[in-house]
Amino acid sequence: MYRRFSAHYFNDLENIGFKPEEYSALKFGSDAIAKKFGYELAELFFDKNSEHLLANNCIVFPSPYNYVKNAASIMTMHFVDKLNEKLVEANGEHVEYSIVHRKVSYINDYGFLSKEKRKGLIKSLAVVFGALAIGIGASIIKNKKR
Description:
By secondary structure, the protein is mostly helical. The protein has one domain (20-135). Helix content is 42%, strand content 10%. The protein has four helices and five strands, in the order ααβαββαββ. α1 (20-27) crosses α2. Residues 130-146 have low confidence and may be disordered.
């Protein structure tokens, strides 16, 4: 099962639903904002997906990294903390948290690369889920019913 889920949907920069300065603080390492965003996302995600979460074992993977956690990974840890709190309150099992390791580290700052170079890096990206290495485009979906 794969469905796209976001806390905020928007079509223009005038109506984004969150403060751009908070997003900027998140990208520059603010743990307080990562926690705020992660908790908000977990609350909304649980509200929309509680039936599935309570009926299945789930694993959450953050954005891939090797050594230094990125903003998305830090926010994901807070998301998992709040989601597990909600699941325990509902007598469910907690979600597992696992790490996706990149097989290649970016030498240059990704944000300064051209669109074409970023696409090339993403296209050739390989990641490791536990002992299983896969390339982007492949997927692992395992639904284990209790």
